[in-house]
Amino acid sequence: MAPTTTAAAAAVAEQQQHTRKALGLAAHDASGHLTPIRISRRNTGDDDVAMKVLYCGICHSDLHTIKNEWRNAVYPVVAGHEIAGVVTEVGKNVERFKAGDNVGVGCMVNTCGACESCRDGCENYCSRIVFTYNSVDWDGTVTCGGYSDMVVVSERFVVRFPAGLPLDRGAPLLCAGVTVYAPMRQHGLCGPGKHVGVVGLGGLGHVAVKFAKAFGMKVTVISTSPGKSQEAVERLGADAFVVSTNASEMKSVMGTMHGIINTASASTSMHPYFALLKPKGKMILVGLPEKPLQIPPFALVGGGKTLAGSCMGSISDTQEMIDFAAEHGVAADIELIGANEVNTAMERLAKGDVRYRFVVDIGNTLKSD
Ligand SMILES: NC(=O)C1=CN([C@@H]2O[C@H](COP(=O)(O)OP(=O)(O)OC[C@H]3O[C@@H](n4cnc5c(N)ncnc54)[C@H](OP(=O)(O)O)[C@@H]3O)[C@@H](O)[C@H]2O)C=CC1
Ligand SMILES: O=C/C=C/c1ccc(O)c(O)c1
Ligand SMILES: [Zn+2]
Ligand SMILES: [Zn+2]
Prior knowledge:
alpha/beta, Quinone Oxidoreductase, Chain A, domain 1, Rossmann fold, 7-stranded mixed β-sheet, 13 helices, 25% strand, binds NADPH dihydro-nicotinamide-adenine-dinucleotide phosphate, binds ligand L3LJF4O6, binds zinc ion, metal-binding, cinnamyl-alcohol dehydrogenase, cinnamyl-alcohol dehydrogenase activity, ADH_Zn_CS, EC 1.1.1.195
């Protein structure tokens, strides 16, 4: 069909540069069921890095998106923004990477470079940000993520994997890791003498515990799952664990925390958590439940508490975080799965049944028949 506007014509022309064939896993409707799909990737541009995907973590954002819980899905959706792999080709202007390098790509693949956020080095808040998947890129194509055998990404959005950090256990750091590390650093929750709470012991929450301990802080997990208590303390290194529905356990830590990183994927009731903060304490919200939050005003106003949101991190935050992780032995606890197991993994993630991040072994298992 002929394009109807100049912009549409340009978009189609640009799309025709996407001649490289790739294999992906796509959701086609709000059932979220994933099936193999043939997709196109652009040719490696002068500033681009082409990468063979080896591992991709499954973030709860992928699940929110494929089930259209945020009402923004553009089907078919090829999700995945915790992408670890190896460089296969670089464009002629690329100086920082070469074929064979171990690299990662997180949540964004394009930003304007000119807005106030970009100029401040906070391109994760760019007004024209293009996310790694389910986002319209500037050439008019819809981005496809790392549930795919290869990606082509501008060098600016590629980070280097430090030696010693395994690609499979490191992949989740590219979203989960930086999403908790960046606000801890930004809000000063990153040093000895501080007590931080982590709401929700899932993919984000368990790496928040590990970073908090690496920063030398006291950390308390606030969870809905009593069954996670022992491993939170013994395996992940938390100092304490309280069940959010247990009034006496919650009372025992009331008014003790300098800050809370709230990673809950579904809880909208914030009231019980504010009571755990010291006066002037900070609640950093990173979880993105489908439904609006409920916040009684007195929970926030009394004690002069702050509620802040935080989204991902910048590219420099991501490189800093991953270098820090390698130096301090921080990596995700993962369940490595094959491409044929993603639908079961999504069902289990929806029920909170994962320890603590599914990672798809794309390199060994995503193959065409
Ligand atoms: N701001 C950002 O930039 C980013 C935001 N996100 C968002 O963060 C959230 C967490 O992601 P992720 O860690 O991958 O998800 P997970 O599913 O791995 O973990 C979420 C955890 O939330 C807790 N939880 C679930 N339901 C409830 C409930 N009804 N009440 C209280 N707690 C609940 C559970 O922990 P427990 O069993 O301990 O209670 C669960 O393990 C998602 O909404 C995701 O979209 C993700 C990445 C980046
Ligand atoms: O407002 C934008 C939110 C973006 C976002 C949220 C969660 C996540 O995992 C992302 O990669 C992006
Ligand atoms: Zn994510
Ligand atoms: Zn910008």
